[in-house]
Design brief:
- It comes from Bradyrhizobium erythrophlei.
- InterPro entries: Leu-bd, Peripla_BP_I.
- Residues 1-26 form the signal peptide.
- It contains 14 helices and 14 strands.
- It has helices at residues 2-27, 55-70, 90-103, 115-128, 158-172, 186-199, 203-206, 221-229, 241-253, 269-276, 278-281, 303-315, 324-343, 349-356; strands at 29-30, 38-45, 78-85, 108-110, 132-135, 151-153, 178-183, 207-213, 234-238, 259-262, 285-288, 346-347, 385-391, 396-404.
- A five-stranded parallel beta sheet has the order 3-2-4-5-6, sandwiched between helices. Strands 8-7-9-10 form a four-stranded parallel beta sheet, with helices on both faces.
- The longest helix is centred in the first third of the chain and has 26 residues, at 2-27.
Length: 409
């Protein structure tokens, strides 16, 4: 009887342990790129080429992932961020992203930088059902869950931002003669269309010049001259850093003093306004949604800012802590980690998208007070809130209320 009892007890214990192990394994679900110890994610970054100013974003993101790994990783797993240089060239982006998916077998792509590079791999990644998360672009096609359910952009909508500028111009400069310099791709065209939507039926009369440029052009001096000669007294630059800096500098060299508006992609102080000249940049208008760490009192009574400054000092000491590019890299990496945390032990591509599309008022360290991140399966837009800013020669100063775009265009 005693032997029978112990045999039964041992058998019951063994069954319980087996069930426990089976249950634990059942709770863990992995797709390519995920294991008990690692999560592989990949991105392309223009470490070289005409948009190399954005390299700072990728460097900040890599540094952030190192910090997370030093802290134990995400749910016990280390993040392996694989970065390749695509020089902001769409054909190279295609080559490198295929390598990430088919050779490196990443779980997802994260923050591929640039509108044209992202557009080049949009259909490929959706066809492979690989998440194209937080793409570094605000073009409308990257927040279209019906057409591209595996793609989410991070940046505020270029169209919405352009519309905000149009509404601002109508209110503050109703008699302006507007000249538009725009990049000849989805970025520039979305901004231009948004501007026209904001101006409404006055657009045709107010816009006196629309001049595009190709990203590969060495200079945009001739475009600026054409805009001036068209009689513009307000210039909207729908561009990226190199061309935005060239435009500001050329306008100053001409002794011309139009009202200037630059888009959010090109309003970084270190990569645009300093090269163009801080004095020449004074008075430029844009929008923002993040804090400015270059202000002397920025960290006072702001734990999020202090965490960022500590991060920069320890993990990215060679980076410019006052640059909006460093800030951008930090908050995008922070949001990526948040999504991975929410995934728990279900690291399938389907669950990654489920978590990314169910963010609920997520607070990031460097978003302006009152701005949070919320998404849904029918609304992929990460950033829907903006505030107008004006450059005073040293810093961007916020003015007006935080504007929330409720429309889904």
């Amino acid at each position: 009887m005693r032997d029978t009892f112990f045999n039964w007890t041992a058998t019951a214990t063994a069954i319980a342990v087996a069930l426990s192990i089976s249950s634990a394994h059942a709770q863990k679900k992995y797709d390519a790129g995920a294991t008990d110890t690692e999560i592989k994610i990949g991105q392309t970054v223009p470490f070289s080429g005409p948009a190399s100013a954005y390299a700072a974003v990728g460097k900040a993101q890599a540094a952030y992932m190192k910090m997370i790994n030093d802290q134990g990783g995400v749910n016990g797993r280390k993040i392996n961020l694989i970065q390749y240089d695509d020089a902001y060239s769409p054909p190279k982006t295609v080559e490198q992203v295929r390598k990430l998916v088919e050779a490196d077998e990443v779980l997802l792509t994260f923050q591929i930088i640039g509108t044209a590079p992202n557009a080049a791999v949009l259909k490929y990644l959706n066809g492979k059902k690989v998440p194209q998360l937080f793409a570094a672009t605000g073009a409308a096609k990257f927040t279209d869950p019906k057409a591209f359910p595996w793609t989410m952009g991070f940046n505020p909508s270029y169209f919405v931002e352009g519309r905000i500028y149009g509404q601002y111009i109508l209110k503050e400069h109703p008699n302006a003669k507007i000249g538009v310099l725009y990049q000849n791709d989805d970025l520039g065209k979305d901004y231009l269309n948004g501007l026209k939507a904001g101006l409404g039926d006055k657009a045709a009369k107010m816009i006196v010049s629309e001049i595009s440029y190709e990203l590969t052009e060495p200079t945009i001096d001739s475009q600026i001259l054409k805009i001036r000669d068209a009689g513009a007294d307000l210039v909207f630059s729908a561009s990226t850093p190199k061309q935005a800096a060239q435009a500001i500098k050329k306008i100053a060299e001409l002794g011309w003093h139009p009202v200037q508006i630059v888009d959010i992609n090109a309003n970084t102080v270190s990569a645009v306004l300093k090269p163009a000249g801080l004095e020449a940049s004074k008075g430029i208008i844009s929008v923002g949604y993040v804090k400015d760490p270059s202000e002397a009192a920025a960290a006072k009574d702001d734990p999020g800012m202090q965490r960022y400054l500590d991060f920069m000092q320890k993990y990215y000491p060679d980076g410019d802590k006052g640059s909006s590019l460093s800030v951008y890299g930090y908050i995008t990496a922070q949001l990526m980690v948040q999504v991975l945390k929410q995934c728990g032990d279900d690291l399938t591509r389907e669950n990654v998208m489920k978590q990314a599309t169910s963010l609920n008022k997520v607070e990031l360290d460097l978003l302006l007070p009152g701005i949070t991140v919320s998404t849904s399966p029918t609304d992929y837009r990460v950033n829907k809130q903006l505030q107008m800013v004006k450059f005073d020669g040293e810093h961007w100063q916020q003015f007006g209320p935080i504007m929330t775009d409720e429309a889904k265009d």
